[in-house]
C-alpha cells in the first residue's frame, strides 16, 4: 500500500511538474498574451462597428439633406426660368402693342 501511495504521489508530482512546465512555458505565455490581445481587438472592433453605424446614419441623413436641397434648387431654377420666359413674353407683347399703336398713329396722321 505504501508502494502504491508512493507511486501515486510520484505520479501526481510528475503530472504537477509537467503541467506547471506547460503553463509556465514561453509558448503558453504567448498564448495568454494573444488571447488577451484578441479580446482587446474584438472590443475595439465592436466599438468601431458601433461608431460606423452612427457615422453611416449621419452620412445617410446628410445625403437626404443634399438631395432635398438639390431638388429645391432645381425647382427654384425652373421657377426662375419660367418667370423670365413669362417676362420676355410680356415684353414681346408690349413691344408688339407699341408697334401696332405706332402704325395706327402713322395711318391716322397720313389720313
Sheet of most strands: none
Radius of gyration: 46 Å
Question: What is the global morphology?
Answer: rod-shaped
Secondary structure: number of strands: 0
In percent, how much strand structure appears in the residues? Answer: under 5%
What structural class should be given to the helix and strand makeup? mainly alpha
Low-confidence blocks of residues:
none
The number of domains: 2
Count of DSSP-assigned helices: 2
Distance between the termini: 155 Å
Name the assembly state: single chain
Secondary-structure element pattern, one letter each: HH
Please tell me the overall pLDDT: 87
Helix content: over 70%
Structural features, described:
Keywords: Coiled coil. Residues 31-58 form a coiled coil. The chain has 111 residues and is mostly helical. The protein has 2 domains: 1-46, no CATH class; 75-111. It has helices spanning 2-23, 26-110. It is rod-shaped. The termini are far apart.
What is the secondary structure topology, with strand pairs?
Layout: H1 2-23, H2 26-110
Briefly say what this structure is:
The protein is 96% helix and 0% strand.
Task: Name the descriptors.
coiled coil; 2 helices; 0% strand; mainly alpha; 111 residues
Amino acid at each position: 500500500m505504501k508502494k502504491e501511495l508512493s507511486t501515486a504521489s510520484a505520479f501526481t508530482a510528475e503530472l504537477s511538474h509537467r503541467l506547471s512546465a506547460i503553463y509556465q512555458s514561453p509558448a503558453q505565455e504567448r498564448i495568454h498574451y494573444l488571447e488577451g490581445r484578441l479580446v482587446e481587438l474584438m472590443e475595439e472592433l465592436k466599438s468601431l462597428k458601433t461608431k460606423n453605424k452612427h457615422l453611416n446614419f449621419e452620412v445617410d441623413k446628410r445625403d437626404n439633406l443634399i438631395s432635398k436641397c438639390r431638388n429645391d434648387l432645381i425647382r427654384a431654377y425652373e421657377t426662375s426660368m419660367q418667370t423670365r420666359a413669362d417676362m420676355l413674353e410680356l415684353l414681346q407683347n408690349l413691344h408688339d402693342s407699341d408697334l401696332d399703336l405706332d402704325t395706327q398713329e402713322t395711318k391716322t396722321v397720313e389720313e
